[in-house]
Amino acid sequence: MKLTLEQKSNLESEILKQVRAEPGLSRIELAREMRIAPSTVGNYVGRLIVEGFLAESTAETENDEIEVGRPATALRLNPDGGEFIGVDFEARNIMAMSVDFSDTPVKHVHKRIEESDTIAQILRKIEQAVTAVLPGNRSRLLAIGIGVPGLVDPDRGIAIDYKYIHNWHDVELTAPLAAEFGVPVYLENTVRSMALAEMWFGQGRGQDNFLCLGIRSGIGAGIVTGGQLVRGSAHRAGEIGRWRFPWPRSDVASFFIDGNPPDEPDVELQEIASVRAILGALERARRVRGKTVLSAQSDRLTFDDVVRAAQQRDALTAQVLGVAAEMLGQAISQLVLALNSSRVILAGPLTLLGDTLLHPMRAKAEELLTACGGDVPAIINSTMGEYSGALGAAALAVHEWKPRRA
Prior knowledge:
Structural class: alpha/beta
Oligomer: single chain
Number of strands: 17
Largest sheet: 5 strands, mixed
Shape: globular
CATH superfamily of the largest domain: ATPase, nucleotide binding domain
Strand content: 15-25%
Order of helices and strands: HHHEEEEEHEEEEHEHEEEEEHHHHEHEH
CATH architecture of the largest domain: 2-Layer Sandwich
């Protein structure tokens, strides 16, 4: 049966994904993995080599079947095959990164979003971030991925809503960027982008069932089950920042409130445990509590100040972080009971706190899970750093892109 151009493109895309997942496969092994004829694989691999997407070298395997008439060869991605760009942003920061065809980072850039920025100005900064990491030869750019905070509609390329950027409603993202840069643009929720980064490059590699807790201005969960990213029926899976919990019982709990105490008996998770909430609580607390290293800071606190205070074992900082850790532990226990995940990965700036946050968070989750007979997963920090979301967005572009067939 003769394949259509689309079917041929899909087949070549699957070949590239197999080689990306298992570098060093021979053509025979690739045919076995994909359950198609070696001759068919050979034809398509040959084209991908000519197009510059694959390269091969003599395979150093003793047990591999030898292809008739030629030695076994090991297939790998050709770094010179092109580049992908990932953009990740939240309320105050834009991160962009380019990677070559073998997933090696090439360039990265960080831009700041100001509170006074309009939607048009933010979109312009996203465009500038992409431009800053473009390859020298723009024809090498193959696709762009964008990790977007809040609710998204990937099918229409629209950001639906995000609480922490003023007027961020139904913002068209993919079409303008595709028109400007002339390549396909793919969109995903930023925490799900972080989960993709962990699944392909980080602490989730080789894990079929894990959670990635992305904590910045808001909080979300990237959910992977059966080796697949869970998006939900309306792309809203993992919006746990809006979960409500009873107000914490702590004498520093009042510092999480800006103004009069609320009438509600409970509070959203992201109003206690996000980076934004922690900074706000410590900013208010240091004005009242004299005995804290943070009192010496004259400017508005940054998260670097919080990390330094935690490293100095500042009591007030430890108390505020303890409240956030306990609430995160509660959220983790509920997620694990529902999904039976084998691993929970904390991603975002809070990982810079190391065990100061991780230890009490893990202890609370273990306490609750053990009490109800649940399995206790590994609860660990991401090791991917501040550009994990951008790398995940680039990985999204890598995953969705397909070779063009003329």
